[in-house]
Amino acid sequence: MAGARTAVLPLLMQLGSLALAACGGEVSREHPRLADILADQQQAPSHSLVPAEAHQQQRCPLEERLERLESEVTDLRKQNRDLQARLLRMESCGCCSTSPQCWGLARTCPEGARWEPDACMACVCRDGTAHCGPQPNVPHCHGCNHNGQSYGHGETFSPDSCTTCRCLAGTVQCQGPSCSELHCLESFTPPGECCPICRPGCEYEGQLHEEGASFLSSSNPCLQCSCLRSLVQCVPVKCPPSPCPEPVPRPGHCCLVCQAPGCTEGNSHRNHGQEWTTPGDPCRICQCLEGHIQCRQRECASLCPYPARPLPGTCCPVCDGCFLNGREHSSGEPVSSQDPCSSCRCANGSVQCEPLPCPPAPCRYPGRIPGQCCPVCDGCKYQGHEYRSQETFTLQENGRCLRCLCQAGEVSCEEQDCPVAPCAWSASGPQLCSACVLNGEEFAEGIQWEPDGQPCTACSCQDGVPICRAVLCSPVPCQHPTQPPGACCPSCESCTYHGLVYANGQNFTDVDSPCHSCRCEDGTVRCSLINCPSTTCAKPQNGPGQCCPKCPDCILETQVFLDGERFPHPRDPCKECQCQEGQAHCQPRACPSAPCAHPLPSACCRTDCKGCAFGGKEYPNGADFPHPTDPCRLCRCLTGNIQCLARRCPPLSCLKPVLPPGDCCLQCRDAPADCPRSEDMVPARHQEHFFPSGDPCSRCLCLDGSVSCQRLPCPPVPCAHPRQGPCCPSCDGCLYQGKEFASGERFPAPSLPCLVCLCWEGNVNCEPKACAPAQCPFPAREDCCPACDNCEYLGVPYLSSQEFPDPREPCNLCTCLGGFVTCTRQLCERPACSHPRILPEHCCPTCQGRRAPASSPGPRWGCGMCAEDQISDSKLTHLSVWDTGCLAHGEEHPEGSSWVPASSPCSSCMCHMGIVTCAQIQCVSACIWPQQGPSDCCPRCSGCEHAGRKYEPGESFQPGTDPCEVCICELQPERPPSLHCHRRQCPSLVGCPPSQLLPPGPQHCCPTCAQALSNCTEDLLGSELVPPDPCYTCQCQDLTWLCTHRTCPELSCPPWERHTPPGSCCPLCKASTQPCMHQGRQMASGEHWVVDACTSCSCLAGTVHCQSQRCRKLACGRDEVPALSPGSCCPRCLPRPASCMAFGDPHYRTFDGRLLHFQGSCSYVLAKDCQGEDFSVHVTNDDRGRRGVAWTQEVAVLLGTLAVKLLQGRTVMVNQHTVALPFLQEPLLYIELRGHTVILHAQPGLQVLWDGQSQVEVRVPSSYRGQTCGLCGNFNGFAQDDLQGPDGRLLPTEAAFGNSWKVPEGLGPGRPCSAGREVDPCQAAGYRARREANVRCGVLKTSPFSHCHAVVPPEPFFAACVYDLCACGPGSSADTCLCDALDAYASHCRQAGVTPVWRGPTLCVVGCPVDRGFVFDECGPPCPRTCFNQHIPLGELAAHCVRPCVPGCQCPAGLMEHEGHCIPPEACPPVLLTGD
Predict the structure, then answer these.
(1) Model-level pTM?
(2) Peptide bond into 1304 cis (omega under 30)
(3) 710 CB contacts (<8 Å, ≥6 apart)?
(4) 202 neighbors 208 (Cβ within 8 angstroms)
(5) Of 8, 11, 309, 590, which one is least surrounded by beta carbons within 10 A?
(6) pLDDT at site 1051
(7) d(Cα 82, Cα 102) in Å, to the nearest integer?
(8) Which own/partner contact pairs does 1289-1293 have at CB distance under 8 Å and 24+ positions apart?
(9) How many other β-carbons are positioned within 10 Å of the β-carbon of residue 1426?
């Protein structure tokens, strides 16, 4: 009741005060009811609140409100009465009441009462407590089963954090969270939340925009868009009028703008609109606008509460670390905490704290002690309260009073009797207690307090009884509240998100999702995706725990530099570097020009004029010194400039002074000395010529005591077969076929016994032996001279008195008698026709042919048919005379016709004036490289084209100025038309006297006779005539002129060195001794030499004549490739080869592709034919003064009994003799030098490439698959079993494998070798060396080699490169090792068909003699253009050159390589090419 009164009284007091203050008077008697209420509540006499004299009679609008409040107060009094009744039931002055009661169904139930709150629940009042449970007799009220869990009737549970379920009468009813309706395109549910929220911002054209952002459309810059409530709205851009007459468009802008000028700052020019960062201040951004530079400070968004400081060269702090208490912490690093009971670490710019783990306590109720983090058993924590050990306390449970004791973390309780009530019931009502006592402390009635150490408990004193309850927390209006330490209820003043606490307004990065930027706003966390800034590199990288990609930094000399940063080189101040794409690109720093000509070198630039640098030496200012190259001048250094003057020489007393070598001044000549000779001869005087004793072929000169001799030059001899004189060839005798003959001596020819030779003044002339004339027409040849004992008729010998058929006329019978042959023919009657024919197997003509005119009396007819085999290349056939047309071989030929006889396809016959003339066809070439088929008499020119004109089949033309030459375009079966060129055939002018011989006219070929030709009649039988052509001799036999062509002897000189004297038939060799020059050497006339395997040359009359072999087109199979045999020009098909390489320190890449590391310094078998013993390749390694590592020193190739050594500096030895390249030993070996690589070709198809330093490559054809052994493996296609030793067993380590192939050659006497062992040079070199090696070898994985990565993986070569650089150590040797590794990878790329261009101005430069025109080519043609092969088409040259391409110096396109220089084609010396 007191509580009700205290609640109403203050309200009435406020209302009364408000009314009096508003109306300005006292409480009027006109309001007795209100006065009565006030009097009853206050239980005190009424008194005026204001003086009576101040009362004013006036009405106030507030009175009406007071009247309404009066009725409300009446209602309150009624409620107070109900409240009083309830309080009477609850009031008690002790722990126990006389009659315990329960509250149920909104009323008080006595002890033992029963009631049913619903159809399934029954309750009973026991000991003042209501005990409720399901009714046992109702089946559907027993409970519910949900997801395998059982729940009782009325029980409430949550299957997840967002759903609440209740079991009612066997049925589960679930209800989800009540979420507000969202109006956005995209929503998401944050982790740990139940209701979705709108994703802030908009996504438009693939880009994210923040809420409220305004932006231009990327596809249409004339649209201005904005992001409002996650929706994008776009409106057209309104362009302002342009102030200039000719505005221009700007890329990425909608409106036309005026042509704006750029900006100039120092030496830099910027375009309009261009932005840049000022050097030294990365937070200052400048922009060129309309010719003016405007700068602003970069704004940095705070994405995390404790960001790390900006990286060097950048402006904004980053969230990949934390900056706390004045020091940097990397992400994941522990940081200090103000709470000693928490462990904190840095997480992407935020601090995450977790309580320290505590061990389990050995008691049930451990308590906490101030200053300690973990609970201990020295106290107790019981029902949310802390108690000290041995402390007693009182509790009330289920209406009972319990007295408990805390002892070593355990709590024991016992029931306590109820104390005597401090007050009793009276007739007028309960007497309220005036105070409460709790834990020995007294509290006044009605006061509220918080017990010590129990912040979540609220107590009050009501009617003398302390009542304590847990503080009930009202729901908070935020999603992520925080319960501060010591507070009972959560607060929205900060945010708890994923176990971490963030201050209000704090920006941070989500720990579980680092790509989200979050912000704490009034207890609610809102997150959005981080908008990553654009990068300037092609391949940005993401680090661990890093959201936005960034360009890789550079590491140079253990220092880290940011991408795009420019900085001086840490070790070389003369270089300026820039970090780009993770690589530091350095170049020499630009130096200003010095004000003097010879400044001293300073740290970087030569700008110090306080002294002079001249001739490789340094001199102080004012110093005098001799000229470094001219001893006759004295120089002085003057402020960086050099002044040199000639030295002064003393005067001389002689008339003809001389200048001794190496002196500056003239000196008087000393008396010249004589030259001593042999003991018995007088010394030679100064400038005297003399012949040395015993050597008449040399002439010497004495000059001031020194003798110089030279061999006497020999004059050219005017004879063909001179003999060797005392010094020079002499024509006073002959040297013929290895024998000497005196001049005038006759001797039989050594090779032809029927010839007699005469030596006359150095010339030898051989003629047939002189024989007495035979006294018979058909003598037989005996020994060398003819004899009449037997007969020789038409080349066939016959015995005397022997009869035989006439070989020419089957109807004749001949008899040999003492060298005479008599033939008797069958006489034939004259046929009645004018053109009779002789049929086969007949002797006389019949009239089935032509009939002779009656007016032309012909000769007596006989059997005139000729045998087919009498027409040959050297004779004219046996011919019959006809006045019109010709008859040959039984066939008629009209006058002027020509034909090819069937028995001699390379001869041609013609009919002229009744005489048939047959001769061998003389060929003419109209092209450089004619081709001759198996059935062709003369070579043909492919294609009917000459001098730019195309000829059709059947057309003929004259190819040159000689009218006797003719070319005809002829069709060929199954081939295109071709040109056939030859000389015209002239008829034999039999019997034409020289006086009547007419020369051919202009554009005519053959001469003519001014009179009729002679006929072979019976009167002329046996007679001979000499025709105008000196090569023919004609006889009249059997009424037919038989003309025989003279046989010319074979000549040793080529055709272009022959000439035919006037009036002669056979050519002679020209006699010339003029030498030739070839590659700086003088070649004698007639000398032959070989240029290469395809070209041989000779010197003839001062001109170099070369003959080149051309290769036919080669078509190899699928598994074959063209390959060269040693000494051969043209390739042949061999099985596709495999390659094995040894390079670097050293590393071996086997035939099957496995990469091995082996550092033994002995001799080992690299590759060997272990079955056929065709070849064996050994390598000898050298440690080069470093323990544990080695390099290839030399290579030995064994081919049967042949031993080839490839040494340092590209020196080659064959069987212990040094040889010059190219070297050929047929048919087994050919060695050549291409660029900087020695290439060895061997007969089995073996190729060995040696760079002369440390890299060797072995190539074998696939026919050796499975037959090889050694360090290169077994070549069986499987890299797993390459570690096989000589006994075939697989060895466990690479060192054991390499040592097993050791051979006893060694490096020579006194040069011990060491076995290979497993070493790691990078471990010995240290971390810095390994990192430096990784950086330098990283070029293998960059763009110059990118095209090769798909065909040759770079990882094994990268590992080998790092290994080598660690082993080589710092300095220039590291550059050599790097180039070896890069070159090895490039070589494998070239074999795979990819040629990387990887060398740079400072990376593995190869010097070429630029003064001679050479340039470097990474994969130059192995068969370059020379003056000897320039005639071969480029495609044909490349197709038949099967050597591997190698890097080296080459001539540029359009130039020829000749004698070590690159020259244009027109500058080539005269070389006459003669064909195949």
Answers:
(1) 0.32
(2) no
(3) 698, 699
(4) yes
(5) 590
(6) 64
(7) 18
(8) 1293/1318
(9) 17
How far is residue 264's CA from residue 266's CA, in Å, rounded to a whole number? 6
- Higher pLDDT residue, 1196 or 1232? 1196
**Residue 95, token pair as written in the block:** 């722990």
Q: How far apart are CA 1069 and CA 1085, in angstroms?
A: 13
Query: What's the chain's length in residues?
Result: 1476
Residue of 599 and 49 predicted with greater confidence? 599
Are 500 and 346 in contact, with CB atoms under 8 Å apart? Answer: no
* CA torsion through residues 218, 219, 220, 226, sign: negative
Q: How far apart are CA 157 and CA 142, in angstroms?
A: 16
Q: How many whole angstroms separate alpha carbon 112 and alpha carbon 127?
A: 8
pLDDT (tens digit per residue) in 1-36: 444 444 444 444 444 444 444 344 433 333 333 334
In angstroms, the CA 149 to CA 1286 distance is 74
680: nearest Cα among 690, 693, 691:
693
> Please, which pLDDT band fits residue 63 given cuts at 50, 70 and 90?
confident
> The tokens 């109702």 sit on which residue?
138
| Side chain identity at residue 1390, one-letter code | R
Phi, psi for 600 (deg, rounded to 5):
-80, 145
Least confident of 163-167, 274-278, 428-432, 815-819: 428-432
Closest by CA position to 1217, among listed 1227, 1202, 1228: 1202
10 Å Cβ neighbour count for 754?
15
The amino acid sitting at 643 is: Q
Q: How many helices (H) and strands (E) does the chain have?
A: 9, 120
**Long-range contacts, 479-488 (Cβ 8 Å, 24+):** 479/190, 479/193, 479/523, 479/524, 479/525, 480/520, 480/523, 480/524, 480/525, 481/523, 482/523, 486/455, 487/455, 488/455, 488/456
Measured distance CA(1159)–CA(1360) in Å, rounded: 12
Percent of the chain at pLDDT > 70 equals 79
Contact 1000, 956 (CB under 8 A): no
Q: Enter the tokens of residue 978.
A: 């071709």
Q: Which amino acid is at 380?
A: C
pLDDT of residue 653 exceeding 90, the answer is no
**Do 732 and 720 contact (CB within 8 A), yes or no?**
no
- Cβ atoms 764, 756 nearer than 8 A: no
User: Rounded CA gap, 942 and 969, in Å?
Assistant: 10
What average pLDDT does the structure give for the chain? 76
- DSSP one-letter string for 953-996: TT-EE--SS-TTEEEEEEEETTEEEEEEEEEPPPPP-TT--GGG
The 3-class SS string of 1192-1250 reads EEEEEEEECCEEEEECHHHCEEECCEECCCCEEECCCEEEEEECCEEEEEECCCCEEEE
Q: Which residue has the tokens 């033939």?
A: 823
Give the distance, in angstroms, between the CA of residue 187 and the centroid of all CA atoms in the same chain.
48
Both structure tokens of 179: 């979420």
Sign of CA dihedral 960, 963, 965, 968: positive
